[in-house]
């Protein structure tokens, strides 16, 4: 498989990366010999190889150049192979390794004279050819100028390398192919952390993206994009994608490398903005983030323009200003959040950012990318934990809001119940007074006052314990008995297995059915045998209440001869049905009405079964 295709193949087969260790042939025998060289530093781009060779230009030892590379400078290398001639041999093919440079030209001897071979990262592929190597050139002894020299013209735009770290070495073609196409143990140690990082966070990215698509929350979106940018920035080296891009699309690869840094910071601050809800909780920080986001977008555009036009002095200025601004923002943001923290969410951002900073500093001072990978891993894990914590708190808040809305709905329905009951009671008192029955009116008013006090005491809560509800119901029945001169009897029964002090029910939930049984069932019946039975029992997770009367039945109560005929459904029962529906978590039948009849089909009364959910 061609080498370029192999890099893409590695990326697609993420789950089987580790078996590539089986390709780790023994590369310990690879011999790499340092080549002595002298160097010339100049800003004259017009200097040619002829001028360098014929005008007596002086080259200097490497330790004469203590500084770092600059985009305007050209570095001419004069490599001397005189001491290595016996090693090279007349017919052997060798690889002259120089490392990666943005522009690189090697001058070799040919039959036509001195010929240039370009292989720099930013050199167009049409010039350097499909078969080029980006770190050096292949040559034979016959390619040496004057039988001993190779000249190089090098230029570095992308970063400032220490000049005294330049290295030139000699590797046989066979050893180079072995090194390029197989992994050594050092390669495995270098790649293993990256493979683990990539594999783990690809899964986290997919999981976070799924969460975003199911919730459409912007903090999940920017967290997923932040992971993606970090994966591209740190993971491309693991799959040699950067090598592929630099080798074939150098300008695009260089631009992408820097653009990713801007996008990493942009997605990071936008994640923090929506995660912390800075617009509501931290307005000053929100303003700073908005300004910084605009700055990053402008910097991204300027950076791309400068790279495309090979204006790397300006590009370096933009990237350095960007890093300085981000450093000040990171320090200021952490201090601000630490001082004005309103919840625990802040500390996930603070600790995560400090982990990332520690990893960056570790990489800066040791030149070991593993510190950066470790810092990013800790940061992403902390941010993930922070999102989980926020998700949990948001759910708890939603549940609380739903409960408050539910309680408000019950309170509103209950508020509709109380005026209905009070109106009926006051009507009864008015009736007794109009009949000049002062004793009964006074007795009725006393019991009514006691009932109102119980209702007011329980009005703060939407539910009351069953024992209080039964006591209120008993007082109500006493009032109704007084109202109708004791024309009916009643009995309240509670199952022995039911703990009336441990069960809570909505206040006055049974009263409308009791009232309906009295008014429409018992009072329409002739004779003295008028009985109302009320029974309470628990069945599984429901409180079952039965209101049973031996009155005339529903059909007779609605007839033209009913003394208390109602042309519409009882308002109290209608409100109670809504209250029971609000209590029920499922679409279930909460009220069941049974018409009792004898064998001949004559009405024997009505039984109403009320099921109240207890969960």
How would you characterize this protein structure?
This protein is α+β, with helices and mostly antiparallel strands. α8 (241-248) crosses α9, α9 (250-276) packs antiparallel against α11 (283-308) and α14 (369-434) packs antiparallel against α19 (571-583). It folds into 3 domains: 33-181, Immunoglobulin-like (Sandwich), CATH 2.60.40; 185-397; 484-613, Heat Shock Protein 90 (2-Layer Sandwich), CATH 3.30.565.10. Strands 2-3-8-5-6 form a 5-stranded antiparallel beta sheet, with no helix packed on it. It has a 5-stranded mixed beta sheet with strand order 11-13-14-16-15. Strands 1-9-4-7 form a 4-stranded antiparallel beta sheet. The protein has 19 helices and 16 strands. Helices cover 54% and strands 16% of the residues. The radius of gyration is 44 Å and the shape is rod-shaped. The longest helix is centred in the middle third of the chain and has 66 residues, at 369-434.
